[in-house]
Structure formats: C-alpha cells, structure tokens
Fold each of these.
Amino acid sequence: MLGSLLQVLYFVALGTLSVAVLEGYLYLHFRFWDKRWLLPIGLLAAVAAGCSAAALVPLGRASLIVSAIATEACLCFVIQYLLRGRFTLPYLLLAPAVIGLLLLIVYPLAFEVSLAFHDLKLNTVMHWSRTGELPFVGVKQFARVFTTSPLSEVTFWQLLLRTLWWTVINVVLHVTGGFALALLLNEVKILRGVYRTLLVIPWAMPQVVAVLALRGEFQAEFGAFNIMLSRLDRWLPWVAKLGIGPVQWLGRHPFLTCTLINVWLGIPFMMVVILGGLQSISRNYYDAAAIDGASAFQQFRMITLPLIKPVLVPAVTLGAVWTFNNINVIYLVTGQAGGSEGADILVSALYKSAFTYYRYSYSAAFAIVIFAILFIVSMAWLKFSKSTESVYG
C-alpha cells in the first residue's frame, strides 16, 4: 500500500515538475521575445535537450536533435513575429493542456498510422525494441485487412455485416424501448423521480458489474432465465411441446445473449435523453391539437416526433457510435481468453488480433479501416437525418 502511494506521489511530483519547466520555458520566450540572442540560445538548449532525450528514448539521436531544433525554431518564429510577445497569460495557461493532448491523442494516432505502413508482429517486436527499425510494407497491411481473416473462423466481411446488424438492432431497440419508457414517465405525476432512478440503474452502474451480473443469469444450469423456462414447462406442458425450454445461451447463442444484455444496458440512456426532450415540449401544442380533433397518434406524429428530433438525432448518432465500438459486452460475455468467435464484431476482432495473435501492424491498419467505416456511416446518417438543418438552414 505504501509503495503504491509513493508511486502515485512520484508521478504527481514528476507531472508538477514537467509543467513548471514548460511554463518557465515559455515564459522566458515571452519575456525576452525582442532579444536577438533568444534564437541562438534556444537552439543550443534544444540541441542539449535532444542529446539528453536520446539516452532515454529508443530513437535515433539525430532525429531527436532535429525535432528539438525544429520545435525551438517554430516557437521562436511564432512568438517573435506573429504574437510579438502578446497574450502571455492565455498561452501559458493553455500550454499544459495542448501538450497533454499532443502526447495522449496526436502522438498515439500518428504512431498508429505509421505502424500501419510497417510490419510489427511477434517475431519483429524484439528487433524493433532494440534498434527502433521496422520494415516498410506500404499499403500491404490495408490489403491484408480485406483479404485475410483477423480471426480463425470468420472473415472480415462476415464481421462487417455482423457489426452493422449488431449496431442497427441495438440502436433500434434502444430508441424504441427508451421512447416507450419516456412516454410513460412523461405522463406519470407521482414518484416520477423514483421510477426514473430505478430504470436508469443498469446504465448508471459500472458496465463491468452490470454485464457480469446479467451474464450469470444466462448460465445453463443456475441462470434465472433457464430456471424460469424450466418452471414454465412444468406449469404449462403444452409450451414444452412447442420446443420452448432451457437454452444453452452462452454456448449456442452468444450473439443473441450479447444483444439482449446490451439492449438492457442501453435503453436507460435513451430514456433519459428522450424524456428530457419530451419535457421541453410545451403542453399548449397538444391542447390546441386536441381542440382541433387530432388523435393521440396524430399528435405523436405531427408534434412529438418533429419537436423531439433535435434531441433524438444526436442521441442516436452517439448510440450508434458507442454500439459500433462496444467491445465490453462482447469481451465480458464470450470470455476474456479468446472466447467464442460467434459473437465477435469488428472491434472485438481487432482486440484479439492485437493482443491474442500479436499482429500489431495489421491491427493498426484494421483500426484505421474501422474508423473510416464508422466515419462514413456517421456522415451519411447525419446527411440523411438532416440533423444540422436547423443550424445552417
């Protein structure tokens, strides 16, 4: 316990020191921006920093020195000729966040793109770790994504179709179930907060806990669903004659099991979002429609749906993206050590390709392809739904 606490304190102190050095470095540039000696002194410091970093980072000394010199030259140019020493405080406050984003988002993304054009796998990773060199293969990894299966039993195209089906059926059921519950809660006047709290629990609790708890209910012998089916067969013998009985959920129907669990987890979010939109619609519209003789369905179609669209379309878009990339349910339900491939979608196949089969460059190209697919589908949906019409139209 003490060792873990000391490690946390060490990283906190290291982060604080790094921020202090960064702030001091930038402050000196803003403070002496009009001095002619700023650029030469800065370049010498950049060379020294590049040489020091070469001993810690497994990259070439020359590349680090060149990067440090280029960074220092760009910084001096921006401060001396563009900013001319102005806006010191705003840039000092923004700098740590910008550096953090560069290190945590931009650099990993750039490294992934670079990795996709090389060949890093289990038998080349040791050579790369010692020398920092990898064989360049061009677009070969991207071609292999479409021609080579990331798993042992299913192809990329089967995974793509399954992922699209997984996304569509989950989002449709999320929206349908969430809309139904939101309409019911919108009419409730007593204990609405209690009902809403109870219904949102599956989504509010940690997803790992929720998934594993419901996974246990699908066990073949002791799961709640099979126990209920067994008792139903005893009480109603004619149901058993129809073939309805206990099911090997995890063994024979892993995809159906994952879908049921994910639907249970996703409906509360849609319910909360849609309920908020419904409560923002004035009752005057419904009162005027009722006076004109509009039925409940006509009020729903002509009033509720158009006015809920600005809330519903972004929620559906987010739900589709989350569902498309939802590896948690697949991973936790079908097994953490490889598991069944009967429920795998693109992102779970990507995970297994990287951390079960150790095909790192292939997985990097695979991830870029998945991102491109998701981006195209999202843009097409936004265009089709005209979600930005009220903003730009």
Amino acid sequence: MGRGAVLSLERAWELAVAWYHDRMRSDWRRKKRTEVQELFARLGLTSRFWSLEEPE
C-alpha cells in the first residue's frame, strides 16, 4: 500500500475548519465534487492524492 498525503497540523486544521464550518447549519448540504476540488485547491492540496478526477 502506498503512502497517502501527509499534512502538517496547521494544514489539517485549515482543512477541518473549511470542511466543517457550516455543518451544524439547518440549510447544510453535502458538498459537490467541484466544490470539494475547489476547496482542496484553495488550501494548496493539489497533488495527485487530492484529485477527484477518475483515474485513467
């Protein structure tokens, strides 16, 4: 099994805050694939590991 992504504690916290900031809102909805990919890009998570594209 290959090694996955390694995040610093700070980057993991940034991801958690961005991912869960609206989770308890009554109008919460699941994020769309494009929204998730944009979130990853905004946080600098751009390696192949973070790609949601279908593998070829």
Amino acid sequence: MYKKIVLAYSGGLDTTVIIPWLKENYAGSEIIAVCVDVGQGPETEGLERRALATGAAKCFILDVKEEFITDYIYPMVKAGAIYEGRYLLGTSIARPLIAKKLTDIALAEGADAICHGATGKGNDQIRFELTIKALAPHLGIIAPWRTWNITSREEEMQYLMDRGIEVPMKKEQSYSRDRNLWHLSHEGLELEDPRTEPDFEKLLQLSVSPENAPDTPEYISLTFERGVPAALDGRAIPPVGLMDRLNALGGKHGIGITDMVENRVVGMKSRGVYETPGGTILYFAHRSLEYLCLDKQLTAFKEVAAVKFAELVYSGEWFTPLREALSAFMDVTQQTVTGTARCKLYKGNIINAGCESPYSLYNAELSSFTTGELYNHFDAEGFINLFGLPLKVRALMKKGTA
C-alpha cells in the first residue's frame, strides 16, 4: 500500500474523479495534487480549493510556462518537428515537462507513487510513464483508467453526482480538451465520427474560423538568433509574452486550425482538432529563414531527422539518448539561422513577405538569369555529362541486350 501518492491534477473531469477514487481504493494514503501550469490559463483558477475539497491533503500549482517554452518548445521549433506532416505536437511536448515536475515533487515529498488520469487507449499514459521510468524508476505508477470499472465520461459525471461533488463541465461540452501556451486540442463527442465536419463556431476557443477572420491582411516580422525567436516587429519580447502575442495574432486571422486523423502510439487511429495559432506562425517564419541560411545537404538531412524527432516527442521519448543527440545536432544546424522573416497573415494563411539574414546563402549574381562572373554556363555541359553517365551506361546496356 502506498503511503503518499502524487496526482497529476488538472481539475478536469478525470482528475476530479480520481481524488475521491484514490481515497476509496487506497485508504490511508495521502494524496498530493500537483498542477503543472504550462499555460492552461483560467483552468488553474480555484484548483487548490477544489483539490482540497475533494480529499487531497496538499495541492501544488507550479508555474513553468517560461521553462516550457525555452527548454521544450524552442528545441522542437529548431528541429522543425511535425508529426505525420500536420500535428505540431502541442499536447505531446508538454507531457515530459509535466511528468518531470511530478517526479520532482514526489522525490521532495517522499512519495512512493505517481498517479495520472491518462486513458488506457491514449498516448499520454506512455508519455507520463516513460518520463517517470527515466527519472525515478523506483516510484510506483497508478493509472486508474486501466483498473477501474468506469467506462465513459458520462459514468465519471455520475460518479461525482452520486458523491455530491460538483461536476466541472456540462455534458454537451464534455470534449476532451488539452490547453497550454502552444495549443488547444479537442477530441470526443461528434469529432469521433470522421465524416462529421466540426462546428468551429461552437468548438474553437483560441481562434476564429478563416471565414470570420478580418478582410484586411496583417504584416508581422519575426527575428531569430541562432534559431531562437528574439523579437516581434523589431521589439524584444520575453518568451511567454511573445507566445501570447503570436497566439492572439494567429487566432485573430484564423491561422493554425488542424483537423486530422492520426496514428496513436498504441496502434489505433484517433481524430482531433488542434488550434495552434502562434506556433504555426513561429514554424513558418523559422522555416522561411532556414530556406535562406541552410545549404542543400544540411536541409535535406535535417528534414529526415525532423521526422524522427517528431516521432520521439509524440511517443514520449524525450528523456532518451537519441532525442538528446538529435537536439545537439539541431543546435549545430541553427548556428547561422539568424535574421528576420516577414509574414502576411490573411484568412487562415501565412504568406512569405520576405526574409533577410547576415548568413544568407542566396547570391543574386549566381541566381540571376543575367550571366555573371561567378557562374559559367558552359560548365553545366560537363557536369550534366558526368551526372547523367550512369543513365547513359544503363541505356547502352539495355540497347545492347535488346
């Protein structure tokens, strides 16, 4: 029997149920609720009162928003990591940090187990537990969704009502949502039918739909230093403030709304709608600058490495030697990614409006249709002859054996 249990607490439906469930099923255990604030906004209001009222002995609320951006989001941006070509990893990238802080509290409080509310079908159980195993393998792990007999969110609501505990949401709004500084995800209800078009008027919270975005485009410029955002429109802004501002700009113009069916780690497909307004702008601007500053071979290999980086983030393998090695590689690629990217925001679109960098590899004399001293057109003939030699040899072989 565990003496102290640290619970990953959000105040949402799952973790509101879990506190009394732990009290009933682990009698005598002290429950320590921990909310790791990665930018949930108003969701953290009143959490301590609610946690204590439902049976927790303590409640910690940890503000880690800046650490989340600088130590997790920025390395992901530098990598250009996108899962299955569309998902900007909003939930995925927050889980290692949350699990790390849960582990820190568990060690500091002398707890012997960590409990999380991730479902037995989802990715988060893997992300939480891999981090705990990597950082504190001696701690026990409790995953109620894998052991209790509750089978739906409706049954969770009934569980709370039976015990006179306030339900933290209405039935018609019982989407499974996850919010942080980087994104807001929506799953469940009608979204479980991939044939159904989302009702953005009802669903979206960070953004407007592109149809309702302003009819006038808006220009912004983002400055990077070694791949890290440094200024917006020429003004230096701290990481949290910059992310808030980009989210407001992107949301205003209906940018970063993704509706996709993805492959979960556990093997099934799931459908989600993601709002990533500021992150989408950041990725676009960063990539635009990379096109200017990275050579062909580095660009090509970095794109391959970015796919693997995204897979590691998605599957919760942040605290692994491979992810750390890939981050070291990405840091090297960013040594010349310094400069400014200008973007036009318009009705769900981001349009390149020019880039400049002291490390630009674009040479106008080489690239111009006008002949210059750096490039001799006659050199192309010999290059093509050698480059195409394998094709010529193969064609001759085929002709000779025909």
